[in-house]
Specification:
heterodimer, A: 621 residues, alpha/beta, Rossmann fold, GMP Synthetase, Chain A, domain 3, 3 domains, four-stranded mixed sheet, B: 359 residues, mainly alpha, two-stranded antiparallel ribbon, 15 helices, 72% helix, globular
């Protein structure tokens, strides 16, 4: 460990994000802090503009009666005001937390009650409607601040305040903010992150100012390119997620990452295309979606173009394998890249990418491999909300062989318990769960190591994730199988967007499948299969047969006991916005809820009464 | 209408000035430079015959752009184009001959004449549409040709008016190379003016009027105003082209402005591709070079000497056939072919845009 790195960790541990902002506004006032697109133009925001905006919001919050220790909830898609409100509230010592923009009414109510926020910041009218439906039941809620007041002309609730009006009335500046931030205690809680939780109610992980900064710094230490030169990033992950916060708020302050906000989260494709980021933090789902869009496009293209793609792919696949073994690029790959992959990547805005970091959920090996074949440096990292914004492990790249989550960053410690559970030790972890000391106690070992709940193993010094501890399937034959491993193997097929494997206590494994509507519809068009919608297509026997073949193909990569013997296709798309749906906003599947909802389909697959009846009928006939 | 996204990634606009840039990507910048250099080097490398051909293309491009604004974009059919060119040429010729006025007075005067004629003959467009409007603009042609002919006979210039080469800042424009560069600049300015008109309020209003007048009016567009504006601007540009033509040829005669000239200009915008400025230039190039191409082909045939007498007849026939072929097989004109070609490479290796953004 180098001395400067250790020093920086300690320095950050004694600091807070708002005072770091003041420092930057003082030392490099005219450097670009971030760019935000509004009315078609990417507006440059310098550190001094940023600090001033935060100062005004902080003053406005103070006027609304926000004091240290109060909670401020923010709900909405990523936008500059989101982080300005967040830092404004933090400057006063208040604790902020974000609510997923896709959260259902029940979830909003739960988090508003559990967190006890006195101010609710709503991005636009959509979230105002959500909170107004609950507001009378929330005793602690005093004010609702609306960022985009476009559609609010018919609202007269006295709690509603318009962000623009509040800010315009304030004159506070950098000096005022500096006075406020010097009073902050770096060890005090800064924000809460509600874990999406694949089991039970969400738990609010409390993270303190200094620990968050120091923990996030381990990403900078692990990926030094972040500080070598200016790196463009695009903000599209929800800011209430700790990874989203790292990218938009924290990393820009401790590295040379410049985040870019699009006009609207729906325009994410356009934003990435325009910005052409040099670094991309993402969750696997996006990488899968973009890859399948490319594959659809190639499958529909003309013969000559497809031929060129196939040829380039053959060259590049060899190259990807050679690269994992440490060999250098040949001219053939450079030609293939320039002729085929660069034009493809350019259409997505991916051609300038130097590093793509996937986190938040396991990245299927096939997806990572495909992107690496295209020449995109995709690496996987592993972190948890409980690691306060830092990572437990990350593939250092460039072009690490997919399959592991890489090595542990400097000055962090990771060990495997006897049952294989990954445990983490660092001075910079979360403080505990909000209002939930039992859960806090359960998440630490006796010697104060964080229990991640994930099972892993070491492969040549790299950490490999096997599965969540509680998810393992033990078949009636006594075999222990990791469902995540099997599911990822199946997700290699572009037609399957979600796969959930069952088989605990059963003879064999079965799967519930959500087909990728885009890919399946495309397949249907190409093969003259008529359909009128998702359900209709999902029921189509020709599609079933195609999926069966796909699964048979994926099964080849699996050991005999791991193979899927039967499957059912879900008749509707999983929608995280819907009440009681077995999928979290980050699209992690809640396994137990899945069984609760679609258990009859699973049981059907193990039911052999029909077979016996048929056999009997044949026998008697 | 917001500006479409750049063709390549990584060009994000940080101010509205960025939105006004005509060239955004590095690829476009490289090709624009190469193309400009080729245009500038051409007169020094090619023979005078080809330099003259290119100069004619520039001159007709100005007229074709003007007609494209009026007919291709604002949707107002005009058959008075030859008349307007004649009006411009005669304005310059008469002012030079009678008052010995210099170049920099006669050309603006031609523009004013054009504008006035455009205003007067644009008035019927407020009531008439389609074929009826076309017939009313026909009147313009005959009025100008009649007046021009009367002037020639009364003043005794029955063979035409001779115009001396113009002088700009003491420089006499006479050499083919000089004319090439002057008219290249003129065509370039005309194109820039048209591009800017197109992306301003006027261009949006014209396209709206073209699509549906009632809807355009409901959107708050002053129909009368913008129709007349289209006529005025288009006629004024056309008259300037006529004045430049007079100086370039050094000679003005009413014989040159026949009905066939109008048909050629209409053909340019149809063959080039309606509604596209690039189409106007491609059409002007094609129609200007076409007769020379036919002539070249015929002289390459065996027994060329015997066919020499029928070159004109073959030319007219071939021109008609090409028009029909375009209308039937390529209604989008040359620009349609260009777009397909460009898309093929721009979308490579896809067939349509499958990912990210729609442009």
């Amino acid at each position: 460990m180098t001395g400067t790195t250790t020093g920086r960790y300690e320095e950050l541990r004694r600091n807070t994000a708002p005072s770091l902002l003041c420092e930057l506004a003082r030392t490099s006032p005219d450097d670009t802090a971030y760019r935000s697109k509004s009315l078609g133009i990417y507006r440059e925001r310098r550190w001094k503009d940023y600090a001033e905006a935060v100062a005004r919001v902080a003053a406005a919050f103070e006027r609304l009666g926000v004091v240290a220790g109060d909670r401020v909830a923010i709900m909405g898609d990523p936008c500059e005001e989101w982080m300005i409100c967040d830092l404004g509230a933090q400057s006063l010592g208040a604790i902020t937390y974000g609510i997923y923009p896709t959260a259902s009414l029940d979830e909003v109510e739960y988090q508003m009650r559990d967190g006890g926020a006195s101010v609710f910041v709503a991005e636009d009218q959509e979230y105002v409607d959500k909170i107004l439906a609950l507001a009378d039941r929330l005793e602690k809620l005093r004010d609702i601040v609306v960022i985009d007041a476009t559609a609010l002309f018919a609202y007269d609730d006295p709690r509603l305040k318009v962000y623009g009006d509040l800010v315009a009335a304030e004159t506070a500046g950098q000096d005022w903010l500096e006075q406020k931030t010097t009073k902050l205690d770096p060890a005090a809680p800064a924000f809460i992150v509600y874990t999406s939780g694949t089991t039970g109610a969400p738990k609010g992980a409390v993270v303190s100012h200094g620990k968050h900064l120091a923990a996030t710094y381990n990403i900078v230490v692990h990926y030094p390119m972040l500080t070598e030169r200016e790196q463009r990033a695009v903000v599209f992950l929800p800011l209430c997620h700790v990874l989203g916060r790292d990218i938009a708020v924290t990393l820009p302050m401790i590295s040379r990452l410049v985040p870019h906000f699009g006009e609207d989260i729906e325009d994410i494709g356009t934003t990435i295309f325009e910005v052409a980021p040099t670094i991309l933090f993402t969750v696997p789902r996006y990488l899968q979606k973009w890859a399948s869009q490319i594959l659809i496009g190639i499958s529909n293209t003309t013969g000559l173009k497809r031929g060129a793609y196939d040829l380039a792919l053959r060259i590049a696949r060899k190259r990807a394998e050679a690269r994992w073994n440490g060999e250098l690029a040949g001219p053939a790959f450079s030609a293939a890249w320039a002729a085929v992959f660069r034009p493809i990547l350019n259409k997505l805005g991916f051609d300038k990418l130097e590093l793509v970091i996937s986190g938040g959920a396991p990245l299927p090996t096939e997806t990572a491999t495909l992107w690496q074949i295209y020449g995109v440096n995709v690496v996987e990292m592993y972190g948890q909300t409980e690691t306060a914004g830092g990572i437990v492990a990350g593939q250092p790249g460039p072009f690490s062989r997919p399959g592991t989550v890489g090595t542990v960053p400097e000055s962090w410690e990771v060990r495997l318990a006897e049952d294989g559970e990954i445990q983490v030790n660092s001075p910079d972890l979360f403080d505990g769960y909000w209002n939930n000391p039992d859960a806090t106690a359960r998440s630490f070992t006796e010697d104060c190591w964080l229990r991640t709940g994930d099972i892993g193993e070491w492969v040549d010094g790299s950490l490999r994730l096997i599965d969540r501890a509680r998810d393992f399937i033990v078949t009636s034959g006594g075999k222990t199988i990791s469902p995540a491993y099997v599911e990822n193997a199946l997700r290699a097929s572009p037609y399957l967007s979600e796969v959930v494997v069952f088989g605990h206590g059963r003879k064999y494994l079965t799967a519930l499948i959500e087909v990728d509507y885009g890919m399946a519809a495309d397949w249907a068009r190409a093969n003259d299969v008529g359909y009128s919608g998702f359900t209709n297509l999902a029921e189509n026997p020709a599609l079933r047969q195609m999926i069966r073949d796909e699964i048979a193909r994926c099964n080849e990569a699996l050991a005999r006991v791991e193979q899927i013997k039967d499957f059912r296709i879900l008749h509707k798309e999983l929608d995280p916005e819907e009440e009681g749906e077995p999928v979290t906003p980050t699209r992690k599947v809640k396994r137990n809820l899945m069984y609760e909802k679609f258990g009859h389909l699973v049981d059907e697959m193990y039911d052999d009464r029909e077979d016996r009846m048929v056999a009997a009928a044949v026998g008697s006939g | 209408m917001s500006k479409p996204l750049p063709a390549a990634s990584g060009h994000f606009r940080r101010s509205y000035a960025d939105e006004f840039r005509l060239i955004e990507t590095r690829f476009a910048r490289i090709w624009a430079t190469v193309f400009t250099l080729c245009l500038l080097a051409f007169p020094f490398l090619a023979s005078p015959f080809y330099v003259d051909l290119a100069t004619q293309v520039f001159l007709t491009s100005i007229g074709a752009l003007a007609l494209m604004l009026l007919t291709g974009i604002a949707g107002q059919i005009s058959l008075g184009h030859a008349g307007l060119i004649a009006a411009g040429a005669f304005t310059a010729g008469i002012l030079f001959k009678e008052f010995s006025l210099p170049f920099w007075v006669t050309v603006p005067a031609a523009a004013v004449t054009g504008a006035l004629l455009g205003l007067i003959f644009g008035l019927p467009s407020l009531r008439l549409r389609g074929l009826y409007l076309a017939v009313s603009t026909f009147a313009l042609h005959f009025v100008v040709v009649y007046l021009g002919g009367e002037y020639e006979t009364r003043r005794g210039f029955s063979t035409g008016i001779l115009v001396d080469p113009p002088k700009i800042f003491g420089w006499e424009i006479y050499a083919p190379r000089t004319w090439y560069l002057v008219l290249l600049a003129a065509a370039g300015i005309a194109l820039l003016v048209c591009i800017n008109l197109m992306r301003a309020r006027s261009g949006r209003a014209w396209r709206a009027i073209h699509s549906n007048e009632t809807v355009a009016e409901a959107l708050g567009i002053g129909i009368a105003r913008y129709k007349l504006l289209a006529f005025v601007i288009s006629s004024s540009m056309t008259a300037v082209a006529g004045a430049l033509f007079a100086y370039y040829r050094g000679f003005v005669s009413i014989e040159a402005f026949s009905m066939y000239l109008t048909i050629q200009y209409v053909a340019m915008i149809i063959i080039g591709g309606m509604g596209s400025l690039l189409g106007a230039i491609l059409g002007a190039t094609f129609v200007t070079l076409f007769p020379y191409l036919i002539e070249g082909l015929m002289s390459a045939l065996p027994g060329a000497d015997r066919l020499a007498g029928s070159v004109f007849a073959v030319n007219y026939a071939a021109f008609g056939i090409v028009m029909i072929l375009f209308l039937v097989f390529e209604p989008q004109g040359l620009v349609g072919i260009w777009r397909r070609l460009r898309d093929y490479f721009q979308l490579w290796p896809f067939r349509y845009r499958p990912v990210g953004t729609k442009s």
